[in-house]
Amino acid sequence: MSRVALRKALADLPPYVPGARAPVGAAAYKLSSNENPFPPLPSVVAAIADAAVDVNRYPDMYATELGEAIAASLGVTPDSIVTGCGSVAALGHVLTAVCEAGDEVVLPWRSFEAYPIAVSLAGAEGVRVPVGADGRLDLEAMAEAVTPRTKVVLVCTPNNPTGPAVHADELARFLAAVPSDVLVVLDEAYVEFVRDERAADGLAVFAEHPNVVLLRTFSKAYGLAGLRVGYAVARPRLAAGIRAASTPFGVSHVAQLAALASLRARDELLRRVDSVVAERARLLTALRAQGWTVPDSQANFVWLPLGEQASSFAERCARAGVLVRPFAGDGVRVSVGEPEATDLFLEVSSEVTRR
Fold first, then answer.
1. Vertex 141, ends 136 and 147: CA angle to 5°?
2. Which of 120, 196, 208, 268 has the most CB atoms in a 10 Å sphere around its CB?
């Protein structure tokens, strides 16, 4: 009996593992998915309710009004914005627009686990460059990994799951070393949480380098993870190509109106971000006081380099009522959540062998 063949790339495609959810009927703090712990603002909920009455209609295919609002908030032209179903979808559209079969994409590892998936689905080959022991991207090694086959380099800042942000001086040296026809994607999903004064200014870098594309999202700081809306910022010619490769009607009408409402409430939402940053500082300080070696985090999570103990530690946390995200053999990522969740997690971490 003959069967339809699947693409060979799918055989080696690593699965995307979502953060654990509490079983039905169970209670646990969810610190496994880097979600914003605050519920939507009333003004955003109202926008969602208003949009719901129109779900029998297709959305604006290119999210025109949202794109204009994003562009105005960033100081770029509207034709530089391409929206997508989360920044991960925008990344897929970027890779589809520029990669041919056999092209190479240089990426840090460990980093965002969707990268190898997106690269393979675009028909390209991923070249992984190890992240340093301090959780920082090794941009010098990434530049050295660029070959004539390299089409794209992915730079996650702050890096998920380890946390540090790329510094301006190291990014400047990196961009000077990378050929101008190689696309550099700065994934800034957590940019609103950055407080490191040495961190690179993505928008300034974008303005200076035509081969740089930014990725951003409404899932984290803006708290719209359940509605899936993100975007790429690119030069108009590149943006047009990315837009051509994007999924038609990829951002729902509900998501578009919620994102617009969130932009209007930006100041209020960023005060919530300040609260998350303060809780991050409390978590980092407490872990270090317990004796843990924890990388600097500029995102809404912290990283514990537990190695082979990662899975057992996550199981211990779950039994205590707090869900974290293990990366088997590497470490555990802990999202910053409610203060009560931090307290409970710190009770578990204090009982574990310290590093």
1. 140
2. 120
User: Does one domain contain both 189 and 279?
Assistant: no
Q: According to the model, what pLDDT value does residue 7 have?
A: 84
What per-residue confidence (pLDDT) applies to 353? 59
pLDDT at 278 over 80: yes
> What confidence category does residue 26 fall into, taking pLDDT thresholds of 50, 70 and 90?
low
Round to whole Å and give the CA distance between 160 and 345. Answer: 20
> Does one domain contain both 112 and 204?
yes
Which of 256, 349, 222 lies closest to 294 in space, CA to CA? 349
Helix (H) or strand (E) holding 318: helix 310-320
Q: Is residue 83 part of a domain?
A: yes
Residue whose pair of structure tokens reads 């974008």 in the numeric block: 206
pLDDT in tens, 40-54: 999 999 999 999 999
3-state DSSP call for residue 304? strand
pLDDT, tens digit, 9 for 90 and up, residues 97-138? 999 999 999 999 999 999 999 999 999 999 999 999 999 999
**9 domain-assigned:** no
Q: Name the domain count of the chain.
A: 2
For Cα atoms 338, 194, 17, give the angle at the middle one, nearest 5 degrees.
60
| Cβ-contact 231, 81 below 8 angstroms | yes
Burial 239-272 (b: 16+ CB within 10 A, else e): bebbbebbeeebbbbbbbbbbbbbbebeeebeeb
Task: List, in order, residues 6 or more apart from 282 with CB less than 8 Å away.
Answer: 339, 342
**Cβ pair 300, 276 in contact under 8 A:** yes
Instruction: Look at the alpha carbons of 121, 122, 123, 124 in this order and tell me if their dihedral is positive or negative.
Output: negative
> What pLDDT does residue 25 have?
54
CATH of the domain at 309: 3.90.1150.10
